[in-house]
């Protein structure tokens, strides 16, 4: 009689291998291949000295020989004191890049915070990043 009141056993978790995840990806995922990783890659973009400036961000760019754009972020503690704020800025930049990547020219990009974003809303930050991507030279 006691066996009738035992809770049901939870189903086992399904483990998905990394190769299965890559097979399911859409064209909008932000894979590691779409990001800048090393200091040398960031330095090469800064050394190219091409910039599109906005009110809060500067977008540094350098043409690459790859078939897609790649992005990196520089958010200084001096301008965004709290880690929560720095992470939010990077999340917004990653999301806009993820959505716009297919229409961007083949460039290495570095989105750099150039002014304190204290009085700027999330929507305005997102709109500025989109505007900077649209101002990139094509071709």
Automatic annotation (TrEMBL):
Top-rank taxon: Bacteria
Enzyme Commission code(s) on record: 3.1.26.5
GO biological process, one term: tRNA 5'-leader removal
Key word Hydrolase present: yes
InterPro entries: Ribosomal_Su5_D2-typ_SF, Ribsml_uS5_D2-typ_fold_subgr, RNase_P
Reaction(s) the record says it catalyses: Endonucleolytic cleavage of RNA, removing 5'-extranucleotides from tRNA precursor
Cellular compartments per GO CC: ribonuclease P complex
Sample GO molecular function, one term: 3'-tRNA processing endoribonuclease activity
Keyword list, A-Z: Endonuclease, Hydrolase, Nuclease, RNA-binding, tRNA processing
Endoplasmic reticulum recorded as keyword: no
UniProt similarity note: Belongs to the RnpA family.
Quaternary structure annotation from Swiss-Prot or TrEMBL: Consists of a catalytic RNA component (M1 or rnpB) and a protein subunit.
Functional summary from the UniProt entry: RNaseP catalyzes the removal of the 5'-leader sequence from pre-tRNA to produce the mature 5'-terminus. It can also cleave other RNA substrates such as 4.5S RNA. The protein component plays an auxiliary but essential role in vivo by binding to the 5'-leader sequence and broadening the substrate specificity of the ribozyme.
Record protein name field: Ribonuclease P protein component
Organism (species): Niveibacterium umoris
């Amino acid at each position: 009689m006691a066996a009738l009141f035992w809770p049901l056993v939870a189903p086992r978790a399904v483990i998905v291998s990394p190769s299965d995840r890559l097979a399911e990806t859409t064209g909008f995922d932000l894979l590691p291949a779409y990001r800048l990783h090393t200091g040398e890659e960031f330095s090469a973009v800064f050394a190219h000295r091409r910039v599109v400036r906005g009110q809060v961000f500067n977008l540094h760019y350098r043409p690459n020989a790859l078939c897609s754009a790649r992005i990196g972020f520089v958010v200084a503690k001096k301008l965004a004191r709290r880690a929560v704020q720095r992470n939010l800025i990077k999340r917004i930049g990653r999301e806009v890049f993820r959505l716009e990547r297919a229409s961007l020219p083949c460039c290495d990009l570095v989105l750099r915070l150039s002014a304190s974003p204290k009085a700027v809303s999330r929507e305005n930050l997102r709109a500025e990043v989109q505007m900077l991507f649209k101002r990139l030279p094509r071709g």
